[in-house]
Structures are given as structure tokens and as C-alpha cells.
Amino acid sequence: MLAAARKDLLLERLRRDGRIVAKEIAIELGLSEDSIRRDLRELDAAGLAVRVYGGALPASPAVVDYASRARVAPESKRLVAASAVALIEPGTTLIIDGGTTALAMVEALPTALECTIITHSPTVAAALLDHAAEVFLIGGRLFKHSAVACGAAAVEAAGRISADLFFLGVTGVHPTAGLTTGDAEEAAMKRALASRAAETYVLASAEKLGAASRYAVVPLDAVAGVITDGDPGGPTLSELAAAGAPIVAARAGAGA
Fold it and tell me: CA-CA distance, 147 to 102, in Å (whole number)?
């Protein structure tokens, strides 16, 4: 089998099964594990898969640049955002992560809602200018891919806050890889923010389900819920629930 055909087959298995075990696929195809690992390395380098010990996982489509992500699954993000907003009561102190789903949350947030919002995203903060909410912006080095502040200064500032809720954005939600993102410093910042909130909810639009990125954020069983419009009867949500992640179904009309 030619290398191109092997890679196509590996990508199809990733889409179908959500993971590849190098040893098993090598036996099935009658090839050496080294050949399969080489293919997986090349798929990883191309951003089409994420190599893990023993095999690979599907790469998240949410690692493209910020402007491109805004055009990915906009209706899914609106559903997730509306369901997230429905969890916010007047007087709540909440942390909103960066990213395009977080920005959709602000768009769904009633402008008259009195609450306190902490964010490390200048785009989220700017979108709140006309809202009644009190807004606190965490500063630090600007990570342009997600338009958020990261680095030591931002993590230190996060250690001085407390909140009722944290709405966490990730690039991958996978039953075995857990909650992941594509940058180590961004992952550290997300962990710092999660540690400062009583409850953390994951903003998981459908394209992130079953996908993974390189850096772990927090375990699935450490969050209060994964807000998603993914197929409730599908295997991914069942596996996520079995791994300890409470599923919050995002549906049209939430918060109405």
C-alpha cells in the first residue's frame, strides 16, 4: 500500500473510531509499527492528527487562526453560548475564557444583567462595554492565536481572584485525552483560572468533540459540566459521560 493511501486510511479510522493504536493497525495492514508511526508523525506535523503514546487521536479543527475559527460552526457556538448564559444568575461573579465561543457568550448575555465578569481576553472585555456588568481584565503577554493574556504575570494575577463560575474554552474534548488546547502557556492559564472558580463549565461546540490537541488542561471529572450540542445518542457523549464528565445539552431556546 502506498504511503498516501495508508494516510488516507489512517485518517478515515481516526474519524470513525476516534483513535488509532499503532500496533493494532500495523498487524491489520501487515506492516511494521515503524511504518505506521512514521505516517502518524507526518500526519501530526501536517496538523491532521495528534500523536499520543501508542498511536494517535483526531486533531482539533479549532487550532486554526482566530479569524478562521470565527467561521467554524457558528450555529453550534450560538447554541452552546445561550445555554452557558442560562446558568448565570444576577449578582454572579464569573470568569469568561477567550475564544470565539466565549465571544458568542457575550453576544447572548443580556446587557442589563448585573454581574461581575473577569476575563483575560481583551476582545471579550471590549464586547462588554455596553453591558451593565462590572468587568475586570487580566493582563499579561498577548497570545494572539486566541487573543488572550498568558504567561507568568497573567497566572499570578489569576491567583488573586475568586469566582462562582468559569466558562472554559478548549480546542479538544476527547474521552481519553480529556480537555486539551494547543499551547502550553495557554493551558497553564486555563488551569489557573479553573482553580479560582467554584464550578467550571466547558464550552464545547460540536467540532471539538472527539478531537484532541497537545496540552492537557483539566481532567474531565474536574468540571461541573460540558455544555455541548453534540449528538446525545452518539458514542462520544456516552464515552465522555462514562469518563466522569457531566453533559449539559445545549438546545435551541436555551435562556429564552
Answer: 11
